[in-house]
């Protein structure tokens, strides 16, 4: 972590996520902000956030009743699109694309790859 110093030219109050009362920051004082790098892969393996099965490959933990146990009380632990100032701008586009793909698969009962229609460099090798 590396601290960065920023001076505020006005006074303000803010509510910290787990503080019971408002916090006051006076005018023209330095605010120490820390940059913190984290790895999404490591965050999904934390037992304190995801329980004892955090090291197991289990994509259903986001679909069944465990969603209410883990993600509902702390929605920021699901980091697929991040949150806050660094939220993914393509989040809604990705959701709409996934919905479109699901509807496409529901409409057609069978999808077949026609290799003759593919360019020569994109074809699957025979061997």
TrEMBL record:
SUPFAM superfamilies in alphabetical order: Cytochrome P450
Organism annotation: Dendrothele bispora (strain CBS 962.96)
Keywords: Heme, Iron, Metal-binding, Monooxygenase, Oxidoreductase
Gene3D superfamilies reported for this sequence: Cytochrome P450
Cofactor field: heme
Entry annotated with the keyword Oxidoreductase: yes
Family: Belongs to the cytochrome P450 family.
InterPro entries: Cyt_P450, Cyt_P450_E_CYP52_fungi, Cyt_P450_sf
One of the record's GO molecular function terms: oxidoreductase activity, acting on paired donors, with incorporation or reduction of molecular oxygen
Pfam families: p450
Taxon lineage: Eukaryota, Fungi, Dikarya, Basidiomycota, Agaricomycotina
Protein name: Cytochrome P450
């Amino acid at each position: 972590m590396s601290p960065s110093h920023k001076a505020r030219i006005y006074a303000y109050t803010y509510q910290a996520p787990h503080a019971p009362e408002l916090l006051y920051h006076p005018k023209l004082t330095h605010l120490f902000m820390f940059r913190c790098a984290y790895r999404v892969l490591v965050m999904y393996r934390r037992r304190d956030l995801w329980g004892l099965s955090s090291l197991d490959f289990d994509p259903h933990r986001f679909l069944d009743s465990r969603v209410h146990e883990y993600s509902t009380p702390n929605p920021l632990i699901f980091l697929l699109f991040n949150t806050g100032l660094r939220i993914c701008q393509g989040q809604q586009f990705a959701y709409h694309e996934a919905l479109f793909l699901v509807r496409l698969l529901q409409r057609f009962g069978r999808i077949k790859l026609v290799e003759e229609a593919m360019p020569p460099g994109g074809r699957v090798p025979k061997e």
